[in-house]
Design brief:
disordered N terminus, alpha/beta, about 250 residues, three-stranded mixed β-sheet, about 20% strand
Amino acid sequence: MAIKNFKHTKFASDSFVNRKLTFKLKSILLLIAGLHTASALAFEPFVIKDIRVEGIQRTEAGTVFTHLPVKVGETMNDELASQAIKALYGTGFFKDVRIEAERDVLVVIVQEQSSIAQIDFSGNKSFPTDKMKEGLKQIGISEGQIFDKSQLGRAEQEIKRQYLSQGKYGATVKAVVSPLERNRVAVRFDIEEGAVAKIRSINIVGNKAFTMDDLRAEFLLTTPNWMSWWNKDDQYSKQKLNADLETLRS
């Protein structure tokens, strides 16, 4: 019986301790939740006496004012603050936007997106720089545009594609980004063109009306011969291949 009473007493004591710990844990969680709620509370509505913009370096202050849904003399509230943040993000000029209030002053704090100040190339011999810049511009990458790091891979692939079209399958392209003042960047593409792939043989299958020699005589591409060192007609080119295929069809 003594053992049973001891076990019963211990169980009751454990239960009391567990309830006490649970109560303390709940109290702590409620306190933490209260602190988070307090930090998340927005400012009380107030009449704006002035608007101050912080963080802009290249963007005109007028651009920020244009996208604000309120003006000096109007009442600011939570809904308008949310609209302002959404509108400023929507411009694409900023990667961070905060709205704060200092007494009756509305403070708009922004962090601008980086912009591309210059684009350079090194190692490009087959294509002139202006042509390469024009090609990048067509995919949305040019000087003065907002810098998007995710587009660098696309730019590298686009440049490499140009070299592949000339048979330079060993070409490598690497983008290097250097930060500049005023939240700008310089982008340089380091290129190793590599050697041009050469044609070892040309085979035509299914020809009956014309011999292979007659058909190959009409091609721009050919296998190595004693003049290939001069006219480079044994170097693979996608454009020449397409032209030769069109010759076959006609």
